[in-house]
Design brief:
Autophagy-related protein, Growth Hormone, Chain: A, 4-stranded antiparallel β-sheet, single chain, mainly alpha, membrane, ATG22/LtaA_families, amino-acid transport
Length: 349
């Protein structure tokens, strides 16, 4: 098995680093931690004067059915259901993610800026997650707010960094040796077609007239070479992406198994969850270093003029009715995904 190219290896390193935060922190430990922190400072209904108990069994109703205690916490001056607190944070994070990834779209198209944005978001997000190591394990009224802010920063930085990382894929695919060979073949066929179209001066008028006609065989060969190059480029991008996904999946599960050790030994208490989240941040930050070093950076250039306005104008152009009519399947899929992801979030909750 051939070893991947240096730039591809660097890209794989980031998948290995960042997916731990997504698989372990965002999907598992953060929702549990946020709810736990809110419940530790919450009060049970209906009068909300008695602190919520994390260990006491829920009371049974008159029909013998166990009912949940309505536990609410005073957060930022408002009574918030502790069961819903993590969902509020998640919803806010999704909204901020949408704003962030759209805004950096133009900068991510630049080889110079995408690498620097990737490094900035990876460093900021991993550092924010690592701050959980500094949080106390005892209840405090300010703790859920700080944890929520850390969660928002981590969510936005992770999503933005993935956008920047995926922007490397077309360039990495074009560097693949097979893709390079296919591109050279397509360019050679195009040159041969252009040279053949010029033809040589024929002795008779009929031959001169025939020389003016397109060279069907040359045009077909050039088209075949170009089609093969485009198909190979697309296949290579898919292969790199799927390999990175597999590497991230492996790293996520490996880290999850390791994190179960301190969480289990700590009895699932808040401090053990904070430790798990902090270790996710450290993993993300440490293993991002070879990615940031090894990925291509491009030549230094100034930020594109009006990059923020251009990014949002491009999105506005995509959602025009005329564009929707041209790509009905794409927009149907996106609309379905809105409901599917929302339902999945509620089901997970």
């Amino acid at each position: 098995m051939k070893w991947p190219e240096p730039h591809v290896r660097a890209w794989y390193w980031y998948a290995f680093a960042a997916e731990v935060f997504a698989a372990c922190a965002l999907a598992i430990f953060l929702p549990i931690t946020l709810e736990r922190m809110a419940r530790e400072i919450g009060f049970a209904g209906p009068d909300y004067t008695q602190p919520c108990s994390l260990t006491a069994p829920a009371p049974a109703g008159a029909d013998g059915v166990v009912v949940d205690v309505d536990c609410r916490a005073r957060i930022l001056g408002r009574w918030v259901s502790t069961d819903s607190f993590s969902m509020y944070v998640k919803s806010t994070a999704v909204a901020l993610q949408a704003l962030g990834i759209i805004s950096i779209g133009t900068l991510a198209d630049s080889g110079y800026w995408r690498k620097r944005l990737l490094g900035t978001f990876a460093a900021t997000g991993s550092l924010a997650a690592a701050l959980f190591l500094a949080l106390p394990g005892t209840p405090h009224g300010w703790l859920p707010v700080v944890a929520a802010l850390i969660t928002l920063v981590g969510n936005v930085c992770y999503a933005a960094s993935i956008v920047c990382a995926n922007a490397f894929l077309p360039g990495l695919a074009r560097e693949d040796p097979q893709v390079v060979a296919a591109r050279d073949e397509a360019e050679a066929a195009e040159r041969a077609h252009d040279e053949g179209a010029a033809g040589e001066v024929r002795e008779s008028v009929d031959e001169e007239a025939r020389a003016l006609l397109p060279d069907a065989s040359g045009d077909a060969a050039s088209e075949r070479a170009t089609t093969r190059y485009a198909a190979l480029l697309s296949t290579t991008m898919s292969r790199l992406s799927s390999t990175g996904t597999a590497i991230g999946f492996f790293s996520g599960w490996a880290m999850l198994l390791l994190l179960l050790i301190p969480v289990t030994l700590g009895g699932g208490k808040t401090r053990s969850l904070e430790l798990a989240l902090g270790l996710c941040g450290l993993w993300w930050g440490v293993f991002s270093i070879p990615a940031i070093i090894g990925l291509p950076g491009g030549r230094k250039e100034d930020a594109p003029h009006h990059w923020l306005r251009r990014a949002w104008a491009r999105v506005g152009g995509m959602v025009r009715p005329s564009e929707m009519r041209e790509l009905p399947n794409l927009f149907t899929y996106l609309l379905a995904w809105v409901f599917l992801s929302d339902g999945e979030l509620k089901e997970d909750k």
